[in-house]
Amino acid sequence: MRCPYCSCENTQVKDSRPSEDNTAIRRRRSCNDCGGRFTTFERIQLRELTVHKRSGRRVPFDRDKLIRSVQVAMRKRPVESERIERMVSGIVRRLENTGEAEVDASTLGEMVMDGLKALDDVAYVRFASVYKDFREARDFEELLGELANPDKAQSKVQARDIQKIDE
Questions:
Q1: Rounded distance, CA 1 to CA 16, Å?
Q2: Predicted TM-score of the model (pTM)
Q3: 121 and 60 share one domain
Q4: Residue at 165 is within a domain
Q5: Buried b / exposed e across 132-155, counting CB within 10 Å, b at 16+?
Q6: Is residue 40 helix, strand or coil?
């Protein structure tokens, strides 16, 4: 492991322990040259995932990018970082367990929205407004109406799906 301070490759592990949610190993390291101390995390990666974007591009799945987008939605919300980490780990686990090497960005976005909805309504609305590309206040009203009355929103979705089948 390269030292983040002096770039020396001569570092030593001082302590290892499981992370709080047991999905990673936390290692405390020190550099033998400069004496700098730093922490690294090791995670299990079952397979390489690729995200198929709406534009048609294919990019490697980036767990850190997913964490950052969730953190932006959660900014200044009273949710512990451990719960956010568990949500993201759950999404990654579900993606890896599908057996598919490629995932649509829309599928990933829906998984994030479902997770945020369970954690915090405000973060859910923030993420949805960017993900669904809201253009008008009416878009927010519809989403808030779904949050206020989820049974009615589900009925609307089912009615819309039936209408598409009939067409």
A1: 14
A2: 0.59
A3: yes
A4: no
A5: eeeeeeeeeeebeebeeeeeeeee
A6: strand
Is residue 159 in a domain? no
Distance CA 95, CA 92 (A): 5
Average pLDDT, the chain: 81
Question: Residue 35 sits in which domain range?
Answer: 1-44
Residues 25 and 40 in one domain: yes
pLDDT at 47: 64
Across the range 1-7, mean pLDDT stands at 90
Angle at 55 between CA 67 and CA 133, to 5 degrees: 60
Rounded to whole angstroms, the Cα distance separating 16 from 69 reads 28
Cα–Cα distance for residue pair 90/83, rounded to 1 Å = 10
C-beta of residue 94 within 8 angstroms of C-beta of residue 111: yes
Please check whether residue 158 lies inside any domain of the structure. no
Q: How many other C-beta atoms lie within 10 A of the C-beta of residue 51?
A: 19
**Whether 108 contacts 51, CB under 8 Å:** yes
Contact between residue 89 and residue 21 where contact means Cβ atoms under 8 Å apart: yes
- Examine residue 167 and state whether it is found in any structural domain, yes or no: no
Residue 20 has pLDDT above 90, yes or no: no
